[in-house]
Design brief:
The chain folds into three domains: 78 residues, Ribosomal Protein S5, domain 2; 45 residues, no CATH class; 142 residues, Four Helix Bundle (Hemerythrin (Met), subunit A) (Up-down Bundle), CATH 1.20.120. Helices cover 60% and strands 16% of the residues.
């Protein structure tokens, strides 16, 4: 299922923006796009999002809408530079003689690069500050997915209703189809005997075998049970994609069996219609968590 959520919040003296997108995937798959100062938080981010999304391809981008406050630099003495400055000044003093004057500490300190400013290392960003922003973005994404899920569940129920209607049509056609098969068998046997006496007991056995071979009562019952299970699953709040995927396989198995037994044009048309709706049902399941 697709979804999008975005949130901003104060973190480490700055403002952090979190954008979260999801698309359908068989498993939970995280793609995190983090700035270097946030890369150490990927583990906590993964575990946090696993609680919100059972499966799906989840893309997270974290960036600074307003950079965090940088720590003040530290003033440091470059000892080697100071010694070099003193040595050069003494050389100058020897050349100039008494006119050069004394070499004072103030004079040395004023020379370039004797004192240098070094940046302080920034403290690592704490997950406890980032987590509320991630949670807000995840909540918005889940809400978007929920709205899509409601619409998708309505669509799937419609497919199930169409399959159920064709199933009822097959159930109504089945008794007449069995009578026609029995009449066809009687006519074929009579033609083969060419006026000879029919063994009614043997004929009754053959008709019973035929009825057993073409009977679809069990398949229709199981098909109805699977349809009810699908409708029940769509009424729950939790993830049902995997469950419905399994039920779709079972629906397909029963429909195929009915089709193989239905030696009747009208019933075959109903089976083809069920297969078409079931295929659309499976396609829509790819977008369901």
């Amino acid at each position: 299922m697709t979804g999008f959520g975005a949130a901003e919040g104060p973190v480490a003296g700055g403002v952090l923006r979190v954008e979260l997108r999801t698309v359908n995937h068989r498993f939970f798959n995280l793609a995190a796009k983090l700035s270097p100062d946030l890369s150490t938080l990927e583990g906590e981010l993964r575990e946090r999002l696993r609680r919100d999304f059972e499966r799906g391809h989840v893309t997270v981008q974290m960036r600074w809408a307003s950079p965090p406050t940088e720590p003040a630099g530290v003033l440091a003495l470059d000892v080697e530079r100071a010694r070099e400055v003193v040595a050069r000044l003494r050389e100058l003093q020897q050349v100039m003689g008494e006119a050069a004057g004394e070499i004072s500490l103030e004079l040395v300190a004023r020379q370039p690069n004797v004192f240098v400013s070094r940046d302080s290392e920034a403290a690592p960003v704490a997950w406890s500050e980032v987590e509320p922003v991630v949670a807000d973005a995840a909540r918005q994404c889940r809400e978007a997915r929920r709205r899509e899920g409601v619409a998708l569940a309505h669509e799937l129920r419609g497919r199930l209703e169409l399959i159920a209607a064709e199933r009822d049509r097959v159930r109504l056609l089945a008794p007449a189809r069995l009578s026609r098969e029995q009449d066809r068998l009687r006519a074929a046997i009579a033609q083969l005997l060419d006026g000879r006496v029919v063994d009614e007991q043997r004929l009754a056995q053959e008709i019973a075998f035929l009825a057993e071979r073409v009977d679809i009562t069990e398949e229709l019952v199981r098909l109805g049970a699977h349809l009810e299970a699908c409708v029940s699953a769509l009424s729950t709040d939790g993830p049902v994609g995997k469950q419905l995927g399994f039920l779709a396989q079972e629906l397909g198995r029963e429909v195929n069996t009915i089709g193989s037994k239905a030696n009747d044009a009208a019933m075959q048309h109903a089976v083809v219609a069920m297969k078409g709706e079931l295929e659309r049902f499976r396609e829509q399941l790819e977008n369901l968590e």
